[in-house]
Amino acid sequence: MRRHASPPETDAPRSMTPGSPVMSLHGASFGYADRAVIGDVTLRIDPGEVVALLGPNGSGKSTLVKGLLGLNQHLAGQVELFGTPLGQFREHARLGYVPQRHTLSASVRATVDEIVMVGRLPHQSWLARAGREDRAIVSRALELVGLEDRAHEDVSTLSGGQQRRVLIARALAAQPDVLVMDEPTAGVDAASQEVLAQVLARLAGRGTTMLIVTHELAALHDIVSRIVMVSTGHVRFDGTPAEFARQQAVLTLGDGSHGGHHHDHDDAVDPRHPSSTPAGGPLDPEQGGAGA
Fold it and tell me: Which of 13, 126, 137, 214 qualifies as a FRET site for 50, CA 20 to 30 Å off?
């Protein structure tokens, strides 16, 4: 097998028909146990777009994303991923998913690069060991999220925001065509949000297609190219950030969370274990205790 002489791009898209959407939905409904949680969704996401899926808790936005990932029921309407009907879609590695999770389990005993290497599994045979190309891709993914200097550290020693970046790197290591992130800035403090925003801005600048689920917009406002607002199980708005700002006064999200902060500060250092968070890395805040 031919190996790359230099680390390959982790987010280089596969060849797609020019002008074809990454995701296309028409009148789509998703839910559980044959009960629709979100319905009549018509939506198109094109390569290179950064779309914020905005809405309060319980609005249906996570149900929509999990439906696209095949994690709940597609009840009605047409859904295509990369031009393939959802029910026939099998190239799941093309969708890089970063789940809504504040931290990795404290029981996980693995290094950062071991966690990120999991992203390479879809590209390996059952018996294959990680090769030079796999290691190069993992290294590049860690560089993109600013954690290359933490590669050999135990992931349990990282702060909550740093662990979030490990999960993003794991998704990037699969070389997806689109990143789907569920509340990437939730549960981390302001400094960590800023660093995560820098990572996402870097990816956006490279042309990475992203669908970002969030119930707030402040940290991501300068990154997204489109906003899709979901409320009470339906899409209520789909347009540019400028259009959203003009209509924001008349849009209702149900809990007033269209731009506020609803984060828990889970990055604080435990005073009983002051060394549990390592010193700052290339993208980490200068002040200790809130490392992203």
Answer: 137
Rounded CA-CA distance 101/108 in Å is: 14
pTM of the model: 0.78
Pairing label, strands 226-231, 50-54: parallel
Q: Longest Cα pair distance anywhere in the chain, in angstroms?
A: 58
Name all domains of the chain by residue range, CATH numbers in brackets: 23-250 (3.40.50.300)
DSSP 154-199: BGGGS-HHHHHHHHHHHHHHT--SEEEEESTTTTS-HHHHHHHHHH
SS (H, E, C) 83-139: CEEHHHCCCHHHEEEECCCCCCCCCCCCEHHHHHHHHHHHHCCCCCCCCHHHHHHHH
Rounded CA gap, 211 and 213, in Å?
Answer: 7
pLDDT tens digits for range 247-260? 877 775 444 444 44
As a whole number of angstroms, the distance between CA 195 and CA 283 comes to 6
Residues 133-190 pLDDT 10s? 889 999 999 999 999 999 999 998 888 888 889 999 999 999 999 999 988 888 778 8
CA distance 82 to 227: 21
Residue 260 CA: distances (Å) to CA of 35, 214, 225, 256: 31, 11, 19, 8
Residues 93 and 175: beta-carbon distance below 8 Å: yes
Q: Which two tokens stand for residue 49?
A: 């777009």
> Can you tell me whether residue 63 is helix, strand or coil?
helix
